User: Which sequence fits this backbone?
């Protein structure tokens, strides 16, 4: 059985779709999955043992990337095509069945929109896959001799970033946890993380260009994740780490972290307009202490 799973370009949306892919894997345990996603999310799906191929869909002018995807897929007879991009590509492929998620804003969490594609209620929570080698690397980087506080001080735009001095104050308020910095590849991500790194010289810097399975394995070694609304936040929640997402001018009603132990802390003000700098450290620390009590 061949299943084509077309998912998001952005990391956060791709992570949220993993629960749906996992549910399909349980429903069709002998199926062969091909996943089409954006370049930033490709390494998220590579460790999935049922995924035989990951097709990277790089955006091009005039939507030419959809023509490229069609060329990659037209030679296969698909038993099922799941299109979470609403692209319509599946209508031009040989497919026994199609499930297409339409775009536009809706009420409720994003995972609810995704679950509705297969009429799953409650919707499946996101998951992550790692390889044994990635788990071993994570154990070497973060050994069992300490407990770790994962910090995600970056995001894809500055309006979503909690001030660096707040992250620094939070980390200093929990001396029982060794801070670990996570951020994505590229000079912009490194620049955004640098004030926190400079002020916490004892922190372990694990940011940069790592496969997402390895990042997830590292996050699983941490006692708590505190970070901005970002793909990294969703990855932490999917990995099962106690996850505290920080929200200002972004839609917590749609993109709150989804996981077995995840919650959001919201800056005061109307949704989508509240400056994240208004979220005080005491509020975040109180939630962090509830999710991860200090050891005496």
Assistant:
């Amino acid at each position: 059985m061949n299943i084509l799973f077309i998912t998001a370009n952005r990391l956060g949306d791709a992570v949220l779709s993993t629960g749906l892919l996992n549910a399909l894997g349980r429903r069709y345990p002998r199926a062969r999955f091909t996943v089409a996603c954006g370049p930033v999310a490709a390494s998220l799906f590579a460790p999935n043992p049922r995924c035989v191929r990951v097709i990277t869909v790089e955006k091009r002018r005039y939507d030419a990337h959809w023509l490229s995807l069609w060329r990659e897929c037209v030679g296969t007879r698909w038993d099922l095509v799941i299109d979470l991009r609403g692209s319509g590509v599946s209508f031009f492929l040989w497919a026994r069945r199609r499930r297409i998620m339409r775009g536009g804003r809706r009420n409720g969490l994003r995972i609810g929109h995704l679950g509705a594609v297969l009429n799953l209620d409650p919707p499946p929570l996101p998951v992550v896959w790692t390889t044994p080698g990635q788990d071993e690397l994570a154990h070497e980087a973060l050994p069992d001799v300490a407990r770790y506080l994962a910090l995600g001080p970056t995001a894809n735009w500055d309006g979503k970033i909690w001030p660096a001095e707040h992250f620094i104050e939070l980390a200093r308020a929990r001396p029982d946890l060794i801070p670990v910095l996570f951020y994505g590849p590229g000079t912009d991500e490194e620049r955004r993380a640098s004030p926190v790194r400079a002020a916490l010289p004892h922190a372990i810097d694990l940011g940069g260009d790592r496969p997402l399975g390895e990042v997830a394995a590292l996050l699983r070694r941490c006692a708590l994740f505190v970070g901005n609304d970002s793909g990294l936040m969703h990855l932490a929640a999917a990995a099962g780490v106690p996850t505290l997402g920080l929200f200002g001018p972004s839609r917590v009603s749609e993109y709150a972290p989804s996981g077995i132990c995840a919650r959001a802390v919201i800056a005061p003000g109307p949704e989508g307009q509240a400056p994240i700098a208004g979220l005080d450290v005491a509020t975040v620390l109180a939630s962090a202490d509830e999710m991860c009590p200090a050891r005496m």
The mean pLDDT is 95. The chain has eleven helices and eleven strands. The two ends are 54 Å apart (CA to CA). The first strand starts at residue 2 and ends at 6.
